[in-house]
TrEMBL record, chain A:
The gene is pigt. It comes from Salmo salar (Atlantic salmon). It comes from the Eukaryota. Residues 50-145 are annotated as: Disordered. One of its GO terms (biological process) is attachment of GPI anchor to protein. This is GPI transamidase component PIG-T isoform X1.
Automatic annotation (TrEMBL), chain B:
This is GPI-anchor transamidase component GPAA1. It comes from the Eukaryota. GO terms for cellular component: GPI-anchor transamidase complex. Coiled coil: none annotated. The gene is gpaa1. The lineage of its organism: Eukaryota, Metazoa, Chordata, Craniata, Vertebrata. It comes from Salmo salar. Component of the glycosylphosphatidylinositol-anchor (GPI-anchor) transamidase (GPI-T) complex that catalyzes the formation of the linkage between a proprotein and a GPI-anchor and participates in GPI anchored protein biosynthesis. Binds GPI-anchor.
Length: 694, 615
């Protein structure tokens, strides 16, 4: 395995080199050779950090005033814009003093943009406030350029573990589609930008996950991902040869992320017809432009994290990313890093689009292996770092702590406390968060560092609401000839049925007997309303099975299909054939009825008129659940010494058998003396004439 | 090849073989037995060695500290068990949960075909409790199992305590790459069967169990722990599983390596290893150990809770703590460290255990006999059958005048009809089917008419049918038209010989011990039985060497080897219980020894019996 990984790294290096050459050529082409070492956007963050460090002191003073106003601003949105604007203008002035000229303009625009952004989040955050809300009637003066936001959500889990989810959003205001060559990159990583424009990618979703999300213990993740690597890409409809572009793209990405994405080929690529729809703008939903592949075996480690961190404008030098120390991130129960690229609306009128790059990193720290018996978490204990500043390039930088189950602090104690609260509907559940705004210097307090501490009061935390949907998968049977794949889908909703889309990708060497496909729930047949099945072709493409199943309330739906294990050619076995072969996770996508609608004995104060009909966005939400990957043993020849012995033995047996067979089938005849030469000649002539022989 | 194709040389060869047939057969038999006995002689065996690289070279440090706490947990478990009067399910669930495991339960019910008098159970209802330690950053594809049975009385409380202690200790460690399943199974093998069938969603024996909720992917290895005292003197390793299957030898090596490292006395078949191989007592010690393994393997029953894992290609063994009157004692902490070490190494596995042998015999824990060494012993016995068959074939071919090469013998008018051969074959197999089905079917009737219990009824019916089969030759002849000819018995014997050779050959490939023991008793009678031998003497010998009597001898031999000799009376009672256990093993776990004996071996012996009484 080590050798295997090593190979991958070597390959990745080679590909990195190739990418570099390609990037280099591009740079020279546009005469913008700046940073020959990385060939990317590193230069911008560096100068910015310097600038921001110089300006911290002055900012401090101005932000002191802002501190008191913060909660007011929250409750009194009408005042907020002007106050904030003043602050930001002030900030901008500071920045102007210490920054190179091109940035000044950006910053002003950014400030304007940010202000609007704040307003927008305010609408969402303060949705319990009766709608005295007004959208600002002053439209943004100029279209916004690139901007960057970062946030960290910390959710204490009922099991005592803790879930930390980072999200970094870089907006890229460019138009690489119209043939105009993009040569200048500010916040958006150049290495990725060039790849995206070269291959005309419309949407790209890539995730690297180590571990399996335990839905039953941890609830739903913000962004689900399957174990291993997952990649799905929507290409622009201008791409003519999608397969070719896909192949090249996977190889380039493999170099960028130092991962073995180059193992993606036609045998593990599928085109799902319904499960993976574009998440961004656009109306092309023709699956011809979609490619989806999973590598369940991919092992995620530091070497994948480093290139991922490099894509951030601040790198891991400032802002939330300083927390990402790999020795801590990989000392956890679950680690998942992802990157999502998609077109989104630029403003609320949605007249033009910008490209959004969202980098997420989810990690779950385990209580039991953390070394101490105490149920206590702090930023330092999690990451062995504390926060000291926001990324200077970020227009917003916030830390959220989920305090929904802890309204009066009876479950755990959170220090330092923050006056800022925000509410959001996440995955169909109304959650309350304590917000720490890192752009506000007061957050860091006297010690100039933020180290949140969560200390449990009770040894046992209350019961978690059962997740409404979860899936499970296993291989049944024994022996090496056949087997059966069971996929279980649980609908834990007490009275609501809902449909789910199940996507199964099975490698060709498990030959599915599709006639044995059964779908049953509560002991009865459950006929799928839609089935899309693409049979496999040996060594060319995998099985693809997609179906739409209605899950009855409070039930388990079981999908079973039998398969036969193929005998591979001897060169097709992996170096460790007795480990088994992986089958990727199946994907369950669903619109799940919201738990908010289930919430009947709500103690929360809310007007009666607002709560009779469950409103639309709360009545159901989209959810994707991945099942476990499978490890299937195939019939494997013994590749060691006895194999040779068997070959030899078989040869000996064949010789023995051959002689016996020879003996049994031979007919014994009395030998006649051979005719003379003259007679033979005569016979030849007679044969030619067609006369009976002598 | 030339030797066989040349008619003259071939004739010379066959003449030699037919003339010297009897002496060659006797020689082969003696050589086979001698070879087998020689296997236990140390210079002829190989020293065990670790084949799996992933387990061999890596270092593991064992630090399990909490033996005393584990014992306390064990006592607590015992108290709760006593209070509930069975498996304390709720307590176990709570305890495992508090140790940070994902806990699930499985309930099962099982109605035995007839009451098991050894373990006093008929309607079995129970619950398995298992907790899964999820490995950090692992995608639930691989798992290891540690199980401890919840036995009746005061047995195995310490095992459960240690299991829970290990669970707690393992949970605080970060380096697990495979999920670890801690299983407490009720009603030993029945619970284990239910759990395994639930885990793999199969149902081979018609049990009734509730489906499992949590799984950990494909199980790579399993250990079953049996511990009934706070301190022990030695640990015994049990390998023999269902149908004589054995786990990969590397598992035994692993156990042995850690016993050596930690300094725990370890035994196999309850026998310590001795160094004096060159003395007679040293040799006989090794031979006894090996014979015990052969007998256990031949029985085809699982000798510990691990035995059922092997069907699913999961390497498994049982570790049994033994407390005897020896001075040197080992405490629970040390056993915990041993298990920790073994699990750490198993956790390092990249592939399933496959590097080492699956077919072996062990004369001691550090020595093994591989399949290449023991198969010739069986081969020497099996070749006798082929030689006799060849002799008969030549005789059959030579007797009708005119046919030189003996190929056309079957078409001669004097040859017996197909019917005269087929009839005894069919009838003896019908008897076999009766022996297989009737004991269980007719138990109710037997209980109504005779003053016996259900179990006795089944066993006695089996013995009755077995004995009734002896009267078969007289009935067979009534169905045949005319006299049995000289040709007739020869053809029948030829058929019987080849049939037996195939049967024993196949059996020996799957379960060497069973094949060898059967060959040892059946080959002599198969080789030398004719209608012309003195009837009374031959009949006595045949009955004494019949499969049933072989079983009886094996029971006595086993007791003798275990150093617990029994009187004739007790031996007979043991024999009866062994029969009932054999039938139960087949019904409950799918052991194949009973159907093999009843449906194939016994009819084959009946064919030979028929030949003896050929008219």
């Amino acid at each position: 395995m080590a050798a295997h990984k090593c190979n991958i790294i070597m390959l990745a290096f080679v590909l990195c080199g190739l990418t570099y050459v390609f990037v280099r050529a591009d740079i020279e082409d546009t005469n913008h050779v700046k940073d020959a070492e990385s060939g990317a956007v590193d230069i911008a963050p560096k100068t910015n950090i310097g600038a921001s460090l110089q300006s911290t002191k002055t900012e401090d003073q101005t932000q002191a005033a802002e501190e008191e106003r913060q909660w007011e601003a929250e409750t009194n949105p009408a005042d907020a814009p002007s106050d904030n604007k003043a602050d930001h203008v002030h900030d901008t002035m500071q920045h102007l003093a210490s920054r190179p000229a091109p940035y000044a303009k950006d910053q002003t625009q950014e400030a304007a943009e940010e202000e609007r952004q704040w307003e927008a989040t305010e609408v969402k955050e303060a949705d319990h406030v009766p709608d005295t809300m007004q959208t600002p009637d002053v439209p943004p003066p100029t279209p916004a350029k690139d901007q960057f936001q970062e946030e960290l959500v910390i959710r204490p889990l009922h099991s005592g573990d803790i879930y930390a989810s980072f999200q970094f959003r870089t907006m890229w205001d460019t138009d690489f589609l119209r043939g105009s060559k993009v040569s200048h990159y500010r916040l958006f990583p150049k290495s990725l930008g060039q790849v995206i424009s070269k291959f005309s990618v419309r949407e790209l979703h890539i995730s690297f996950t180590q571990g399996y999300w335990r839905t039953m213990q941890w609830g739903q993740p913000f962004l689900p991902s399957p174990p291993g690597a997952e990649l799905w890409v929507w290409f622009q409809d201008t791409v003519t040869d999608v397969d070719d572009a896909w192949k090249e793209l996977t190889n380039v990405l493999s170099g960028i992320f130092c991962a073995s994405l180059n193992f993606i080929d036609s045998t593990n690529t599928v085109q799902p017809s319904a499960s993976f729809k574009p998440l961004g703008l656009g109306n092309v939903t023709d699956q011809r432009f979609l490619r989806y592949a999973v590598l369940p075996r991919e092992i995620v480690c530091t070497e994948n994290l480093t290139p991922w961190k490099k894509l951030l404008p601040c790198g891991s030098k400032a802002g939330l990313a300083v927390l990402m120390k790999s020795e801590k991130l990989f000392h956890s129960s679950f680690h998942s890093q992802a990157l999502h690229f998609r077109p989104v609306c630029q403003d609320w009128k949605c007249k033009s689009t910008v490209w959004e790059l969202r980098q997420t990193l989810n990690v779950v720290f385990d209580l039991h292996t953390s070394g101490q018996g105490k149920r206590e978490w702090s930023l330092f204990k999690m990451f062995s770092r504390t926060l000291t500043e926001a990324c200077p390039l970020a227009s917003s930088s916030k830390v959220y702590v989920d305090v929904t189950d802890n309204p009066q602090g009876e479950l755990f104690e959170l220090s330092p406390t923050t006056p800022l609260l925000s509410q959001a509907v996440v995955l169909g559940d109304r959650r309350t968060y304590s917000v720490y705004d890192l752009t506000n210097q007061a957050t860091f307090g006297q010690t100039r560092s933020l180290n949140m501490l969560l200390r449990w009061r009770a040894a046992e935390s209350g019961d978690m609401l059962r997740p409404l949907l979860h899936g499970e998968r296993y291989v049944a049977g024994y022996g090496l000839q056949t087997g059966e794949i069971h996929t279980l889908m649980y609908n834990n909703h007490p009275y609501r049925a809902f449909p789910v889309l199940l996507l199964d990708t099975v490698p060709w060497y498990l030959r599915l007997y599709i006639h044995t496909l059964t779908v049953s729930s509560k002991g009865r047949d459950n006929k799928p309303s839609y089935i899309h099945y693409q049979p496999s072709k040996d060594r060319l493409r995998p099985h693809l099975l997609e179906m739409l199943v209605q899950l009855p309330p409070n039930s388990v739906t079981e999908v079973t299909v039998q398969f036969e294990r193929a005998l591979l050619k001897w060169t097709e076995y992996t170096p460790d054939p007795n480990h088994g072969f992986y089958v990727g996770s199946s994907v369950i996508s669903a619109l799940v009825p919201s738990v908010v609608a289930m919430d009947t004995n709500s103690t929360r104060e809310c007007p009666l008129f607002s709560s009779f009909f469950p409103c639309k966005e709360e009545s159901s939400y989209f959810m994707r659940v991945y099942t476990e990957p499978l490890l299937v043993n195939l019939p494997t020849p013994d590749f060691s010494m006895p194999y040779n012995v068997i070959c030899l033995t078989c040869t000996v047996v064949a010789v023995g058998y051959g002689s016996l067979y020879n003996l049994l089938t031979r007919t014994f005849q009395v030998e006649e003396p051979s005719p003379g030469l003259a007679k033979r000649l005569a016979n030849i002539i007679r044969r030619l004439r067609g006369v009976p022989l002598l | 090849m030339g030797l066989l194709s040349d008619p003259n040389r071939r004739r010379a060869l066959t003449k030699l073989l037919t003339r010297l047939n009897a002496p060659i057969c006797v020689m082969c038999y003696l050589a086979g037995v001698a070879w087998f006995m020689g296997l236990a002689f140390e210079p002829f065996t190989l020293r065990t060695y670790m084949s799996e690289n992933a387990m061999g070279s890596t270092m593991v440090e064992e630090r399990f500290p909490a033996g005393e706490r584990a014992l306390a947990t064990g006592r607590e478990f015992a108290a709760h068990k006593k209070k509930v009067g069975g498996m304390p399910v709720d307590w176990l669930v709570k305890t495992m949960q508090s140790r940070g495991l994902e806990v699930f339960t499985q309930s099962f019910t099982r109605k035995l075909p007839f009451p098991d008098e050894n373990k006093e159970r008929y309607m079995v209802r129970g619950t398995n409790v298992y907790g899964i330690l999820r490995a950090p950053r692992a995608p639930r594809t691989e798992a290891l199992v540690l199980s401890a049975p919840c036995s009746e009385g005061n047995n195995n409380n310490q095992a459960v305590g240690l299991l829970l202690g290990l669970a707690q200790y393992f949970r605080s460690q970060i380096h697990w790459a495979k999920d670890i399943i801690f299983l407490v199974n009720e009603h030993d093998l029945i619970g284990m069967q239910a759990w395994l069938e639930g885990y793999h969603h199969t149902n081979t024996t018609g049990g009734d169990w509730s489906p499992l909720q949590g799984r950990g992917g494909s199980i790579q290895a399993a250990l079953s722990l049996e511990l009934s005292s706070d301190v022990i003197t030695s640990l015994d390793l049990v390998l023999e599983g269902l149908n004589g299957q054995l786990p990969n030898l590397d598992l035994a090596n692993l156990f042995y390596a850690f016993c050596q490292k930690i300094g725990v006395l370890c035994t196999i078949q309850g026998k310590l290893q001795r160094n004096d191989w060159d003395t007679t007592s040293g040799y006989s010690h090794a031979a006894q150990t090996m014979m015990l393994m052969v007998l256990k393997q031949a029985s085809g029953r699982p000798w510990g809770d691990h035995g059922l894992f092997l069907r699913y290609h999961i390497e498994a063994a049982s570790i049994r703590g033994i407390n005897s009157f020896r001075q040197y004692k080992t405490d629970t902490t040390t056993i915990g460290r041993l298990l920790e070490g073994m699990y750490r190494k198993l956790n390092n596995l990249l592939e399933r255990l496959h590097q080492s042998y699956f077919f072996y015999l062990m004369p001691s824990l550090s020595r093994f006999v591989s399949i290449g060494y023991y198969m010739p012993a069986f081969g020497l016995l099996a070749v006798i059958l082929l030689l006799r068959a060849l002799d008969l074939w030549v005789q059959l071919g030579a007797s009708p005048p005119g046919t030189e090469d003996g190929v056309a013998g079957g078409e001669q008018p004097s040859s017996p009809g197909v019917l005269s051969i087929l009839t005894p074959v069919v009838i003896s197999h019908m008897t076999g089917v009766a022996l297989y089905t009737l004991p269980i079917l007719s138990q109710e009737m037997a209980v109504q008419h005779f003053p016996v219990s259900e179990t006795e009824a089944v066993v006695l019916t089996a013995i009755a049918i077995y004995t009734a089969g002896l009267a078969l030759p007289h009935n067979t002849h009534r169905l045949l038209q005319g006299e049995g000819t000289e040709e007739g018995w020869r053809v029948l014997k030829l058929v019987a010989l080849l049939y037996l050779a195939v049967l024993l050959g196949c059996t020996a490939l799957i379960n060497f011990s069973l094949g060898f023991i059967l060959a040892l008793s059946l080959v002599p009678i198969a080789a030398f039985i004719t209608p012309h031998t003195p009837k009374a003497l031959s009949a006595a010998i045949m009955v004494l060497l019949s499969p049933g009597c072989t079983l009886l001898y094996c029971v006595f031999l086993f007791q003798e080897l275990q150093e617990t000799p029994v009187s004739l009376q007790d031996g007979w009672m043991l024999f009866l219980s062994v029969i009932s256990q054999g039938i139960l093993d087949h019904a409950l776990y799918g052991s194949l020894v009973y159907p093999l004996l009843a449906l194939l071996i016994y009819p084959c012996w009946l064919l030979l019996w028929n030949i003896l009484f050929w008219k």
